Amino acid sequence: MDGDVRINPYLAGNFAPVRTEDDFVAKVTGEIPRELAGTLYRTGPNPQFEPRDKNYHWFTGDGMIHAFRVEDGKVTYKNRYVRTPKWELEHEHGRSLFAGFNPMASDPIAMGKDGGVANTNILFHAGKLLALEEGHMPFEMEAGSLNSLGYADQYKGRVTAHPKLDPKSGEMVWFGYGVGDMPLSAGMSYGVTDASGKVTRRSDFQAPYSAMVHDFLVTENYVLFPIMPLTGSLERAMKGLPAYAWEPEKPVQVGVMRRDADVSTIRWFNAPASYVFHPMNAYEADGKIVAEVCRYDAAPLFPMADGSPGQRTAARLTRWTFDLSGKTDAIKEEAIDDLDSEFPRFDERLAGSAYRHGWYAGDPTNSKSVKLNAIAHLDLKTGQRQVHAFQGGDMTSEPVFTPRSDDAPEGEGWLTAVVYRAAENRSDFVVFDAQDVAKGPIGVAELPRRVPFGFHGNWVSA
Ligand SMILES: [Fe+2]
Description:
By secondary structure, the protein is mainly β. The chain has helices spanning 85-93, 234-238, and strands spanning 23-25, 27-30, 38-45, 63-71, 74-81, 121-125, 128-132, 139-141, 148-151, 164-165, 172-177, 187-193, 199-206, 217-218, 222-227, 230-232, 244-246, 252-258, 267-271, 275-285, 288-296, 316-323, 332-335, 340-346, 357-363, 374-379, 385-389, 395-396, 400-403, 413-421, 426-433, 443-446, 457-461. Strands 2, 28, 29, 30, 31 and 32 form a six-stranded antiparallel β-sheet that branches. Strands 1-5-4-3-33 form a five-stranded antiparallel β-sheet, with no helix packed on it.
């Protein structure tokens, strides 16, 4: 681990890829509730070959889907690569050809070819299972076999990995950034896919500056585009400096638009520099828009514009308020929690509406290391928090909420997550009672091997 043979941290420990595609029957301990029937799909980066870039970034590895199917208290597991055009081309050549974020550093064979990795999120909309990554179109997978079906080419461009499913209209609302002919541009798109799966709207506009825009916010009537100064620059990349870098002298600018209006009506609100990968939820209240977000003081995991290392930082849940009828374009920011947090989730039947219950993966030691070793439940009405901390270096994925039944009260149901057991170098699928997180997992399904750290997942009911 010294000198020139330093191992890239994103290829070590449980960041390291697994290179087998398996089907396992998991060994269950405790009780997986009989009413819990469906599949937890998860995804994350899992490079097929040794990356050609010695500064390989975690965000750029090939997507691999991990499916945990739950039926009658039993759990089966299946994992498959997302066979993107990039995956197929590299498979044919038996080596890595694409160089992550820097379009200048790829093998000539890869120049001008699609480098999508579909590694960030997997969700089900209008009968289709979509593997998502913000640089590319959604990629369709077959829900049972996890066979790759190919790009959903009606999108004709980049789509976020964090579209929002509108529980009232059945629409999928989305955006894209870096849109246009030039890489790392400030071009953005706003789009809507209707409940039948057809793209019915796509409107392009320009962001105030080019940035990595990972997620956004949608309420019943509004959409919010957060532009935060993790900036993108082709000019910088061509000089051998970071394609994406933290530039804290630029402000946060959040564009607010009515969903039924034209992109020319976007009103820009602002705040001092900060970074948000993930909001929890957003809603309208008394002429204002309120949102809870996991806010960092600086973008983690990325360098400064001169290539020097970025700040070590962790996110805390923060409430953003946008006063639509007031005279100010300032975003009001209030800290609402004091635990390092990431991967916030809620009862998505209330997406875009006022809600009470939120969950996240956290770090009770507040180590600012992005080590997520706990699951927390925050009651936004009472401020009460319940935490279950895993021990011995074990780490958890994002906790995904599933209601007990379609008409169960908000927040009544289960959380499912994947936990890395450090001492055994192995992973477990775990189930929590969402209203009694402190009790720990009520059911555990043991896998014979580990599931690498990943990003996001969603529950699809049977
Ligand atoms: Fe994300």
